[in-house]
Write a structure and sequence with these properties.
The protein has two domains: 156 residues, Alpha-beta prism (UDP-n-acetylglucosamine1-carboxyvinyl-transferase, Chain); 206 residues, Alpha-beta prism (UDP-n-acetylglucosamine1-carboxyvinyl-transferase, Chain). The longest helix is centred in the N-terminal third of the chain and has 13 residues. α4 packs parallel to α6, α8 packs parallel to α10 and α10 packs parallel to α12. It has 14 helices and 24 strands. It is an alpha+beta fold. It is globular and about 65 Å long. A hairpin with a 2-residue loop joins β23 and β24. A five-stranded mixed beta sheet has the order 21-22-1-23-24, with helices on one face. Bound molecules: uridine-diphosphate-2(N-acetylglucosaminyl) butyric acid (EPU). Uridine-diphosphate-2(N-acetylglucosaminyl) butyric acid binds next to α1, α5, α6, α10 and α12.
Length: 433
Amino acid sequence: MQKEAFLRIHGGFRLEGEVFAGGGKNAALAILSAAILTEELCVIENLPMIDDIFAMRDILQVLGAKVEFSKNVMRIEARTLRAHAVPDALAHKLRASYYFLGALLGRTQEGIVPFPGGCAIGSRLMDQHIKGFEALGAHVYEDSEGISVKASSLRGSVVYLDIPSVGATINTMLAAVLAAGSTEIVNAGKEPHIVDLANFLNAMGASVRGAGTDTIRIKGVPKLHGCSYAVIPDQIETGTLMIAAAATGGDVLIRGALPTHMEALTAKLLEIGVRVDDTGTGEDSIRIRSEGRPRRVNFKTQPYPGFPTDLQQPMTALLSVADGVSVIQETIFESRFRHLEELRRMGGKFTVKDRIAVIEGVEHLTGCPVTATDLRAGAALVIAGLMAQGVTEVHDIHYIDRGYEFIERKLNALGAKIERLERIGPLEIAAGD
Ligand code: EPU
């Protein structure tokens, strides 16, 4: 019989206490694919135990790598690869399956990846990835099955990206580190996960400079070696926890979080009246303190260091109860306001035209059954449930489990009251871990 897991959130509990930021999903996805660029053992630490990472493990195994994964550490040894194609079912599980195009191209000069899955938040084109591969000398074929890349040899080149795409920057880096000669990626993405990938590649013996700026310079090397590496803290999980703390009038210390990655969100939280500090001890941490109703604020999503699109949805949940009208412009993904339909069912007041949402803050939200439409939409609905009066049920939480390691555990440890339940036909039971 079909089982459906869902979260039941009893609203109105203030979050208080300390919590640790987990390892970065989007950094980890890039780093795990990069591990096949060497025959030697890579030990990757601080991985979140989430569905996207389990899917990456499965892809690595299908390609022929020996993989062990437990307690947030994955050991990957890709001594020989037996396949250069990612199977359909795995590719469709997540967006980042397409990083194996760049990684396979770098390692074996050929790769096939069916069109990747991931959240349906916009058209998510791949023209810039293809531009990067072609600039390095690869032939790229697209058909209804997916994308194939092949090269007799790869040589460094200048790649000018029309937009600073995270995925295209990462895929070009993966393909270029073992290419002959030098590559320059101009108008590159500057996200923390791109810098983390560069640090990992350098720990493997690559020569990648300038990550975190507009231009990344890569000198190709003939071979990479194994290494041990710990992934950076998750910028978006940290942001989600910051917003959740602010939304409940809470007082929460997030340990292991990097304040420099959070500046865009911090600036907006300060504007709406939330206190954001570090501990003053030099330790990586962020303390959030809030009371009373948040003030309204406007913002626009932008590539890093601008306000991240991945936090737009959680932030709009918080602003749904702000004092006044907030105007939010989503410039990265054209379909990233679908969660507002669900928030409307909880009493939120919104109008959306093109990529602009106008949020008229209401006094309070009211719990009801809602459905996650993508990963960060799910996080937004959990935050709404924490703030709402009464009980909220969030369905389709498989989206949330792709990117948050048991979100309810961290929130419950801070005082939230969230149950993970399974519905089997008409029966409801508490879901085990
Ligand atoms: N784009 C193109 N052509 C391309 C590539 C991208 O037009 O070749 C467009 C996209 O359609 C989109 C914009 O450029 O409108 C930005 O896309 P980008 O490539 O930067 O994003 P991505 O690599 O698909 C990653 C994250 C997303 C995050 C975005 C933006 C991973 C696996 N995914 O996606 O994360 O929203 O960057 O920061 O790293 C999430 O974690 O919930 C998530 C969706």
